[in-house]
Here is the input.
Amino acid sequence: MLVLTVVVPDGASSGFITVKVAELLSNEYPFSGPGQVLITFGDNGNFNDDVFKLLVNGKVIYDNNQPERKVGPLNISLEDGSHTVQLTGIRADDGIATYYIEFAGDVTSVTGDELTGRDLCPNTHKWYQITVESGAEVTKSPKQALRVPMILQQESAEDTTECPVTTN
Ligand SMILES: [Ca+2]
Here is the structure.
């Protein structure tokens, strides 16, 4: 057996590797790199005041104490298989923690909590189990199926708050 060291070009995520010697072509060797998952999340309430933290497989991906309408898409490399995504509430000053999360890229399924809501209160969590399959993005259609359009949730002072009110 002959061992060859092959450098896969940047940007190639899956396909076949062949070796060409003179005019002779080898067999095709299937190749797939890690899956590329795109995660977008934020505050979709009409008041942009809520703060969330994102973890994937227990590792902090995004942690910033500023309310954001839209964080991402964050590009995360993940091996094929099942992975855990966690969105944690950090701040919801008005007591209504409006959130959304979207998955795109090499994701074939998402299960778990609601992808949008108004109850991601401080120190609570939303959990998602995603299945990653490298190269899925190119074969999947339509990939928008896993995404929710940004429609702002209405919040007003008359609304009942979803989060326990803390007095400092
Ligand atoms: Ca809010």
Summary: The chain has a mean pLDDT of 87. Residues 35-141 form one domain. Residues 45, 47, 49-50, 92, 94, 96-98, 155 surround calcium ion (CB under 6 Å). The longest strand covers residues 81-92.
